Amino acid sequence: MTMSDPDDVYVHPRYLAGSTSTGDPGLRPALDAGWEISHDELGNVFVPAPDQRIRIGYLPEDDDALWKIAAYQQPFATPRWAAAFSTECPTEFITAFTTALVPLHTQDDAFLHEGLGRADDPHPVLSPLTDADWTVTDNWWISETTSPDGLAGAWYRRGALDHNNELTSNKTRWQMWGGTGYASWYAVFSTHTPSRLITATATALADPAPVLRWKDGLRPNDPDHVTITPVRPPAPTPLDILRARRPAPAPRTVAVPRWSTSTPSAPLPRPSRPAARR
Question: What segments bear the compositional bias annotation Low complexity (predicted)?
């Protein structure tokens, strides 16, 4: 049974829940695979693959991209692809991405060469969204998929894009977004990002299950569309019920020796000495 803090709440839909207060869930798939972790004096965290060809950065002291992930043909080359997730992006989406990425790294160079070209059909990659009845709008330069409430979406940008510009800006082939105003978030993926990683992120985005958040750290950005539910205490187990029904043991008694509670009997009179004969 997963234990939760008494101040935790469930938030639905998850794309309006915001980020968690820690990046641990997003880093966990890499750390469990033995990737080494390091950090700088500012609190930025870096987790590279053993061969240095994938690098995951959790960067609270950088710009508004809290997470930056890149893959390289060679450790010191220009990245083959890059992805970034903003500060308010729900952590579950980063976790979905890294969970799919880490095992892909073990499959030769699959993590470098499974991106979708600009002339390909983007709809299968975003099928988790359309399967959840999100709306697709297509035109000659972009294909956008939007949630039923209009507060989250994903798009695929058609046409030629500058590779280096994709690596350093938000003008990328793929983008996901959610929320409004100060609590809005984005996730961007350059052209050569493996399509299965984008599909994994889209699956997490479309998941209808609520997510746990700390109540006092919550930043709901649209109260009319967010449902917040307190976490109920866990149901008692059969053993808990049995313990509750079992009568309390009677107070323990200690046997007291009889002679310690009775009055000592008076001594018997001593027999008189027989009279002396005269």
Answer: 251-265
